[in-house]
# Entry
Amino acid sequence: MSRHTTLPGPHLTALYLLHAGSMDVRLISLSVERHWKHAVRLVPTLDEARVVLVDCDRPGVEAAFEQLGPYPSAGIVCYAFHPKDHALRFPNRLILGKPLNLDALPGILAKAANDTAAIKATVTARRQVPAPVPTPPMAAVETPSSLGHGLHMDEERDLCGAMDDIPLTPGTPLSEKLFFAPDQYLIGHLSRAVEQAVASGRPHVISGLPHLIGVQPQPLPVCVTAFRGNQLRPFSMTQLPHATARIVSALIFSESVGTETVYAAEDFLWNIAAWAARGRLPVGTDPYQRVRLKAWPNFTQAFLSPHALRIAALWTRTWASPVEIATQLAIPHRYVFSVFSSAHFSGLLDRNAPTVAPIAVIPVAAHPSPSPKQEQRPSILSRILRKLLNAV
Amino acid sequence: MRSERARHNKIIFSGTVGAGKSTAIAALSDIPPVCTEAVASDETAALKKTTTVAMDYGLLNLPDGEKVMLYGTPGQERFSFMWEILSEGGIGLVLLINNANVDPLKDLENYLAAFKKFIASTAVTIGVTHMDRAQEPGLDAYRKKLAELGHDPLPAVFRADARNREDVATLVKALLYTLNPGLVDA
# Structure
């Protein structure tokens, strides 16, 4: 699996956000301000743009494209929840999936800008000879496999990143990229707000964000917000400037506009943590320490990262480190790290392993070699599972 | 413990009156479920107009032509003699508890006791329904109750909407992974 890097270089990619919603503008602006200063520069007009980012999901996108007519030298990158659907409407456009992979985006923007410039140069050169000039299809531009139309990989990468496995035993220094600092994300603020609300028995509110997030500690801890689900995910994935969010105690948290959604705090924390973690661990975590899940998360509401059900099934019954769980299930470590991070913040992690941890003797990845006949006929449980996976 | 092959291809749905057993089977079944609903005449009438008096029956058609039966037990405890018969040879139990009942945690205890032998040799997942009408007890209270009852590890407990196929499928998937976390889809 290839890894994306932000393209450094002396030339900033001049980016114009066309037809993007206010939330996206804010998030991308924050990302530029905090992380892409040396790669991307937001420009206020199309005249200055080397590349344009277009939200295809918003009504009137066709009219937005018409604005681009006078700017053939600008690269165009689109994004949408369902790129495949839009690929039919706009067959020659590069369309990324939502939420945008913020690690990869600067590189993609730079590439689109450079490719378009190169195409323009080629076209200009060919115009000097009397030959028909085929319009190079934008879809043919090489794009990272995990973005754009590769929805499955795209979602997987957004959920769990692309981190390689770490050594199976401690001793080797671990990459800083393995860890994330919760305080730089929404999850850090949310976690503190829930803690303070529960400890004080009083509602708390996170302000300073596009919408308030209220935490009601009683009778059962819940989080209330007007953030829509499709806003929360990208917002949770983005690092917030230090002073963006503030936690304040409130006598009551009134539902002012009636569009708020109420989430069980545990589910909410699980999801926000998963989106922030993206296959990483909270800073300070020892990936070799044995822990256990106190209970299954509420997987009808909590986000199901790849293999999360299998991980929960195993980790509720055995003390094991994240690395051991991944090894037993024969899955990439990042999937287990994702579950670990969510469990950590939602209070489902038990770190008090007995002094002598029981050795897990569980038939998981290590299946006995099946006979040829058995190989042709998987177990009934596997077949039911496949049916359910395909059906839902 | 019997081998997978020796078991019948049967998943049992049980739980309290009005918890959504029939609905859950209907949500998952590939055929219109065979129901034995009748007009409720006992204390059930206070909870809903009709109730299952024998069993519900649905079907999952597997791609290779094999079938998995989905059996729903009647909710009333006076039919509890049927529970053991219906569950005989089943793969596992999906237990649905109506959170809007007077004492859902007691219901949980009663049903776990009734299916104790079956659960011991298979597995159980628990769907808590009607939480939109009754938020309490929360899932944590269910987990505490299960721990008190000596369930270690705790079975999966999910908030569930029996009308939602995805919720019901998630309960069944959790059941399958509880039986074998190493399971991969074939």
